[in-house]
From TrEMBL:
Database matches in SUPFAM superfamilies: S-adenosyl-L-methionine-dependent methyltransferases (SSF53335)
Family of the protein in this entry: Belongs to the methyltransferase superfamily.
Name used for this protein in its record: Class I SAM-dependent methyltransferase
Cross-referenced CDD domains: AdoMet_MTases
Molecular function GO labels: S-adenosylmethionine-dependent methyltransferase activity
The keyword Glycosyltransferase appears for this protein: no
All copies of domain Methyltransferase type, residue ranges: 41-129
GO biological process: methylation
PANTHER family: METHYLTRANSF_11 DOMAIN-CONTAINING PROTEIN (PTHR44942), METHYLTRANSFERASE TYPE 11 DOMAIN-CONTAINING PROTEIN (PTHR44942:SF4)
Length: 240
């Protein structure tokens, strides 16, 4: 296994080990109680955390991600099929999906070809849900004497389909939430990013610094709370 593959394996493992339950909290805002969909499509599903959050609303879900490392960390869920693919490559039957989710994946996936693919894959009245969150980690990283720049790679948590004429917005929002967590869960969140993983690896001179990170958080009595900004939008296809 090459070095980059090894890091990807470590990162995806921490990503799969714990994610704050923000997916469920956001979907509860976007999907009315007792809503029911026959075929969901989760684009950029990662390790399947966003897929699991969608399962209470769907009979079946096709969850796709271009990363084989991420798909390898998914767990079997009844009614869910995982595939290594992009929306453009997706072989789902035409006009089959009645709900599509992009959980922190639209920034990477957005393109005109994506919009064309969605029109092919979705029913005319399908709901398209775009959501993301930004967990505030700077203060935690400072406990390791790590100071990060304001933006990581120009990533935009608020990217959506507002500028694409084929979509009509139904609902949009932005809020700040707080979640109680353990020090172990905080460590998994910190190590689930390639840049943070490398910074913490270098700080401790360990290939997988998880236990060292946990011990430091306990020693410095880091608060067992995560605060996050959430961003969400719900669209249907424009009838124009």
């Amino acid at each position: 296994m090459g070095m980059s593959q090894q890091y990807n394996s470590h990162i995806s493992r921490h990503y799969a080990a714990y994610r704050p339950p923000l997916h469920q909290m956001i979907l509860n805002k976007l999907i009315p109680l007792n809503s029911h969909f026959k075929q969901g499509l989760d684009v950029g599903c990662g390790t399947g955390v966003s897929t699991l959050a969608l399962t209470p609303y769907c009979e079946r879900i096709l969850a796709i991600d271009p990363s084989a490392d991420m798909i390898a960390q998914t767990q079997a869920i009844k009614g869910v099929e995982y595939r290594v693919a992009t929306a453009q490559e997706c072989s789902l039957e035409e006009h089959k999906a009645d709900v599509v989710t992009f959980a922190g994946s639209l920034f990477y996936a957005q393109s005109e070809s994506l919009c064309i693919a969605l029109k092919r894959l979705c029913q005319p009245d399908a709901k398209v849900l775009v959501y993301d969150f930004e967990v505030h980690l700077d203060a935690l990283l400072q406990r390791f004497d790590i100071h990060t720049p304001p933006s990581e790679g120009g990533y935009d948590h608020q990217v959506n389909f507002d500028n694409h004429g084929i979509f009509a917005p139904l609902q949009q929002g932005q809020e700040t939430l707080s979640i109680a967590v353990s020090h172990q869960q905080i460590a998994h969140v910190l190590l689930a990013s390639e840049s943070r993983y490398q910074l913490l690896r270098d700080a401790f001179h360990l290939s997988d610094p998880f236990q060292a990170v946990v011990e430091r958080l306990i020693t410095c009595e880091a608060p067992q709370t995560l605060t996050a900004d959430i961003f969400y939008s719900c669209y249907t296809f424009s009838q124009r």
